[in-house]
Structures are given as structure tokens and as C-alpha cells.
């Protein structure tokens, strides 16, 4: 099967779609005021069923998407989730998931599982760029009394986790809507590739309001990591210059 690339219309963001078929996906223009965000989105269902093979956003490739929900719960189907490319305020590239991740009052909780991989694109990888940080943000969050919504994130390659939540269980509202990890703090990484798992859990308790979040942003930082051989050669070159430099003593 031939891989084809399609550029999404954007304002300043290098965003491509990788299509695994001879026909291009039909993208709907979605304008943004922020020039760092793509104008178009792709459907999570198309990313899962193979109609679209992945998304290239700036210097990163996102693919191998998987999504599931509990039978009969209130979380959206994959076809009701849209995926955008974006750049966070610190210049890190990522993807944003837009959908009604929700639990309605009455009945049991709702839960959704989302998986994907992120990797450094081949050109940046060859130059020595590696993933060092991961950032999570939840938007459009709301809970009623005795309710909770959480986003728990883990990585197959790391023991570190991310968590965002809002809860009124047992008291007034408590919320932490963003989180980040620096992998090298735990002597992990930097990474060429990460396999990401998000669990989105919501429970609307004895209230007339749903527990919800509608935006989940995910971005990753990269740093230029010199190859060991290159670092050694650079050090030897510096030593050579120091040896050859004429002495001014005496």
C-alpha cells in the first residue's frame, strides 16, 4: 500500500496527513485565530480505520491510534472526536482531541481509552533531535456535586505518568487541568518514540450536571542530543586547538 502525504491548510504550522490509500481524505476547513494551529482537522475514526495513516505535526509524527469506550456509556464514538495539529505557547508541537468526553447524570460511570504513538520525524531524528518532555492539558472541564472527571496518561517506555482532573467528591471543587513530565529527571530518555495511553474517566454523581471535558491537548518537547561519536570528536577537536595554541608565558 502506497503512503501518500497531504498538507492540511494551516497558518504557520507544518502539518501533514499521511494517507494509506490512493484517494485523499476529505478535510473540512476549520479556521483558527491562532496562527500556530492548523485550520483543518481529521476524524479520529479515520485515523483508526486506516483511511488516514497518521498525522505529521511540525517535527513529530502521530499514528497507530486506538480508541475504545465502555458499552452503553456516554463517552463519544471515535467518529465524534476530531484531531487537530497545534503548537503550544512554548513552541512544542502536538495534537488536540476535541469531543464530548462526558458522563451524564444517572447510571454508572463512563470511561474511554485512547492510545497512539509519537515519534521524531526522520529528518529531525537524523539531526539528533529526541523527545524529552510531555505536556497534558484539559479544557472545557465541568463537574456538578459529587462528580469527577480524570485524564490519566502513561507511557510504555517510561514509569512516569500525567494526570489532569476536576472533582467535587466529598467536598468543594478541586482541579488540576495541566501536567507535564521531564523524562530525564528519572534518568529516562530522551526518546525517539513514545507509546502513549490515556484513560478518560467521568462520573456524574447526584447532580443534574454532566461531568465533562471537551478538549484534550497533548504536546511534546524535543532537544538536540549530540551522538556520542560526534561529542567525542568535538571534544578532541577542542583539545587539539588548545594544544596548538601558542603559549604567551615567558
Question: How would you describe this structure to a colleague?
Answer:
The N terminus is likely disordered. 12% of the residues lie in helices and 48% in strands. It is globular and about 55 Å long. The strands form 2 sheets. Strands 1-2-5-6-9-15-11-12-13 form a 9-stranded antiparallel β-sheet. By secondary structure, the chain is mainly β. It contains 3 helices and 16 strands. It has one domain.
Topology:
Blueprint: E1 4-7, E2 15-19, E3 28-29, E4 40-43, H1 44-49, E5 52-57, E6 60-69, E7 82-87, E8 93-103, E9 110-120, H2 122-127, E10 129-139, E11 148-155, E12 158-167, E13 174-176, E14 178-182, E15 193-203, E16 211-224, H3 228-244
Antiparallel strand pairs: 1-2, 2-5, 3-4, 4-7, 5-6, 6-9, 7-8, 8-16, 9-15, 10-14, 10-16, 11-12, 11-15, 12-13
Distance between the termini: 73 Å
Order of helices and strands: EEEEHEEEEEHEEEEEEEH
How many helical stretches? 3
The gross shape turns out to be globular
Question: How much of the residues is beta strand, in percent?
Answer: over 45%
Class by SSE composition: mainly beta
Task: Estimate percent helicity.
Answer: 10-25%
Total individual domains: 1
Task: Give the strand tally.
Answer: 16
The chain-level mean pLDDT equals 80
- The neighbouring-strand order within the major sheet is 1-2-5-6-9-15-11-12-13
Biggest β-sheet strands, sense, barrel: 9 strands, antiparallel
Task: Report the radius of gyration as a whole number of Å.
Answer: 22 Å
Low-confidence stretches: 1-14, 19-35, 229-237
Amino acid at each position: 500500500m502506497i503512503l501518500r502525504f497531504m498538507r492540511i491548510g494551516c497558518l504557520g504550522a507544518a502539518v501533514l496527513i499521511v494517507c494509506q490509500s490512493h484517494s485523499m481524505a476529505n478535510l473540512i476547513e476549520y479556521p483558527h485565530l491562532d496562527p500556530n494551529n492548523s485550520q483543518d482537522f481529521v476524524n479520529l475514526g479515520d485515523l483508526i480505520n486506516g483511511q488516514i495513516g497518521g498525522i505529521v505535526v511540525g517535527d513529530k509524527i502521530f499514528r497507530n491510534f486506538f480508541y475504545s469506550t465502555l458499552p452503553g456509556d456516554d463517552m463519544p464514538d471515535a467518529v465524534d472526536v476530531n484531531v487537530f495539529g497545534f503548537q503550544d505557547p512554548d513552541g512544542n508541537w502536538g495534537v488536540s482531541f476535541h469531543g464530548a468526553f462526558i458522563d451524564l447524570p444517572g447510571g454508572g460511570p463512563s470511561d474511554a481509552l485512547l492510545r497512539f504513538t509519537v515519534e521524531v520525524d526522520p529528518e529531525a531524528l537524523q539531526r539528533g533531535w529526541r523527545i524529552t518532555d510531555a505536556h497534558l492539558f484539559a479544557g472545557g472541564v465541568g463537574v456538578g456535586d459529587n462528580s469527577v472527571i480524570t485524564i490519566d496518561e502513561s507511557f510504555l517506555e517510561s514509569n512516569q505518568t500525567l494526570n489532569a482532573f476536576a472533582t467535587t467528591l466529598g467536598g468543594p471543587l478541586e482541579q488540576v487541568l495541566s501536567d507535564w513530565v521531564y523524562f530525564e529527571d528519572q534518568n529516562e530518555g530522551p526518546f525517539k518514540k513514545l507509546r502513549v495511553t490515556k484513560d478518560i474517566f467521568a462520573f456524574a454523581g447526584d447532580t443534574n450536571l454532566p461531568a465533562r471535558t471537551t478538549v484534550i491537548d497533548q504536546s511534546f518537547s524535543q532537544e538536540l542530543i549530540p551522538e556520542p561519536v560526534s561529542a567525542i570528536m568535538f571534544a578532541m577537536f577542542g583539545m587539539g586547538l588548545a594544544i596548538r595554541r601558542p603559549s604567551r608565558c615567558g
